[in-house]
Each structure stands twice: as C-alpha cells, then as structure tokens.
UniProtKB/TrEMBL annotation:
The lineage of its organism: Bacteria, Pseudomonadati, Bacteroidota, Bacteroidia, Bacteroidales. PROSITE patterns: RF_PROK_I. This is Peptide chain release factor 2. The gene is prfB. GO terms for cellular component: cytoplasm. Keywords: Cytoplasm, Methylation, Protein biosynthesis.
C-alpha cells in the first residue's frame, strides 16, 4: 500500500508539470494558431498549411499529455480516499499509483527534449566492428534490439539499407525510425557498443569481445533548410541483393549517392556515401537517399553548434560522440552504460528492446547540457 507521501509526490510533480509545460499558455496558443487555419486561402500554400497544422497538433499533444496525468493523479487521490472507506482494495490503490507514477515519469522525460531536432524521426545506422562473423552477429543483435524498441513504443521502423554478413549477422544496416521524439530518445545511443560472451562461433568456447558502432541522426524532410550543392552529387545504381524475387536480380533499383562535402567551418573535405535499397523503385530510392543526405548534413550543423556550446561551457561533462558507451556482458548477466553508470542484470530484456531505463539515465544526466 502506498503512503500519503507518495500520493503527495505525484500531485506535486503533476502541478509542477503544469508550470513547466506552460499548459495554460499553450491552450491560448492553440486557439490562436487554430484561428490562422481558418483564414481564406489557407490551403493555397500547401507546404505552409501543413506546417501550421503540425504546429497545432504538436501543441495539443502537450496539453493532452498533461490532461492524462492530471486525470490519473485525481483518480489516485480518489482511490486513496475510497480505501479509507473500504470501497477499494490496497491492490486497486497500488495499481492506480503505478499508472499515475509511470505517466508522470514519461511526461517529465519528454519535457527534457526541447531542441528542435529532438521532436524528429531519426536515421539509425549500425556498423559491425573488426572481428568478422562474431561482430557481424553482434551487429544483427543490436539491429533486432532497436527494431523491438521501435515496435514496443509505437514507432514505424523501415530498413533502408542492409548488407548481410558473409556467414551470419550483418555488416551494416540503416533503419529509419519515424514517430514523435524518436531522435530525442535515441540520440544517446550514438557510440560503440561492446559485447562480451562465450562465442558460439568459437570451437574452443572462448570468451570473445566484439564491437559495433551505432550512429543516430535526425531524419529531416523538406521543411528543414539544408544547403546541398547539386554539383557535388554523383549517383551509381546497382542490383539489390538478398531475397525479393526476380526483380531484385535483374533491375538496378539500388542507388548509391556520393556527396563531396566541404566543412564550412574547417575547410576539411570528405565523401559522404549513402546506399539505399529500401524499395524496388529506383526514383523512390533516390528520394530516400537524398532525405538521408539532408539528415547527415543537418546533423553536422547540429554537432558544430554543440561543439561551440561545449567551448563556452567547458566546465560541464563532455558528451563523447563515437566513444565506447555501453558494455553487454552476457556471462555476468550485466549491461552497463559507461557514461551514466546505470546498469541492469536483465540482459534478455535489454536485448528484447527494453532500453528505456538507459535512455532515461542518459537524458537525466546530459539533457541540460544540450539545451
């Protein structure tokens, strides 16, 4: 049975969220923005109209989110009072508390995601490290983990490119994950993921260490201004591999985009290479590849801004992009994040996509340094 202090905690955090989210202000703003949608000729500029509708929808989601936890908090208080009158059981009160507590935690976490990019969908790319079959198998396990996470959280996950391993697993894959705040939640997965286990591919049954890198960028669309120089783009086409019928073998539907990028701040040059085999339609794959290019260029600008902010706030703990971030030690039943020191013994749960606690620990520690 919960205590009166736990009830007070939920009520106080609910009231605090009303202030943090400026719910009253958002209600007024929604009314004002909805009035704009009723103006004559509103749909003459479809792109601008869609952006306006999205703004209204996004504001309303915050209001609805708060209304949900307010309702749950009120129901919790009511059930607490009903228990005193023996109208409900302890289990009923505890169940009401669990629902209210989880909803408050979820909205508090979402409130940490305030950057423009946080609200976007994302591109998640996994590359296997050195080590052949073992690391390629590890990369495929990570791919499954993120696909299960996306499925559990109601995100749409599409595999945009996949290169299978020579014997097992995958060499690389690119996944588009679409849904509210997908990038905000998954941006902390950037970096090297380390696996320690007794390898099924080692005849001596030795303990092996494998690595795979994860790279997450916001999935931007035409509404985001990104400067792409057409003269710097070149295209190749190729036949998509893997299962898929005769069309896959005979038609060059796969596309390879090469973009000669010059960093506007340092002058350094590099070639950005993107492959897309998402569909059997070459023009559609070209479109998807261009979308990924916009995402990469947007992310480069984003990281430049973060680097500039880090110089100003040199006293704060740095976020090391691309460094080893997490170890998965199967024999010891332990998964540990080296940035936050959060760890769990539920290895099977983590590999089945239950990474919310790692995401929360990361955001709790680093979100204030990014805003």
């Amino acid at each position: 049975m919960i205590t009166i202090e736990q009830l007070k905690d939920v009520k106080e955090r609910t009231d605090a969220l009303r202030r943090y989210l400026d719910v009253d202000g958002k209600k007024i703003q929604v009314e004002e923005e909805q009035l704009r949608t009723q103006a004559p000729g509103f749909w003459d500029d479809q792109k601008r109209a869609e952006a306006q509708m999205k703004l209204v929808k996004d504001l309303q989601k915050w209001i609805d989110g708060y209304n949900e936890i307010k309702t749950l908090a009120d129901e919790l208080e009511l059930s607490f009072d009903f228990y005193k009158e023996e109208l409900v059981t302890e289990e009923d009160v505890d169940a009401a508390y669990a629902k209210a507590y989880e909803a408050v935690e979820a909205l508090e976490l979402k409130n940490m995601l305030r950057d423009e990019a946080d609200q976007m969908a994302c591109v998640l790319k996994i590359n296997s490290g050195a080590g052949g079959t073992e690391s390629q198998d590890w990369a495929s396990m990570l791919m499954r983990m993120y696909l299960r996470y996306a499925e559990t959280n109601g995100y749409k996950a599409t595999i945009a490119n996949l290169q299978e391993g020579d014997e097992a697993g995958i060499k690389t894959c690119t996944i588009n994950i679409e849904g509210d705040f997908a990038y905000g939640y998954l941006k902390g997965e950037n970096g090297v993921h380390r696996l320690v286990r007794v390898s099924p591919y080692n005849a001596q049954g030795k303990r092996m260490t494998s690595f795979a890198s994860v790279f997450v960028t916001p999935l931007v669309d035409d509404s985001i201004e990104v400067n792409i120089l057409p003269a710097n783009i070149s295209w190749d086409t190729f036949r998509s591999g893997g299962a898929g019928g005769q069309n896959v073998n005979k038609v060059e539907s796969g596309v390879r985009l090469r973009y000669q990028y010059k960093d506007p701040y340092t002058g350094e040059e590099e070639e950005i290479l993107i492959e897309n085999t998402e569909t059997r339609d070459q023009p559609k794959n070209r479109e998807n590849a261009m979308r990924q290019l916009r995402s990469i260029l947007y992310d480069k600008e984003l990281q430049h801004r973060m680097a500039e902010q880090a110089k100003v706030e040199a006293g704060k703990k740095k976020i090391e992009w691309g460094s080893q971030i997490r170890s998965y030690v199967f024999d010891d039943r332990r998964v540990k994040d080296h940035r936050t020191n959060y760890q769990t013994s539920d290895v099977n749960g983590v590999m089945d996509g239950k990474i919310e606690d790692f995401i929360k620990a990361y955001l709790m520690e680093f979100s204030s340094q990014e805003s």
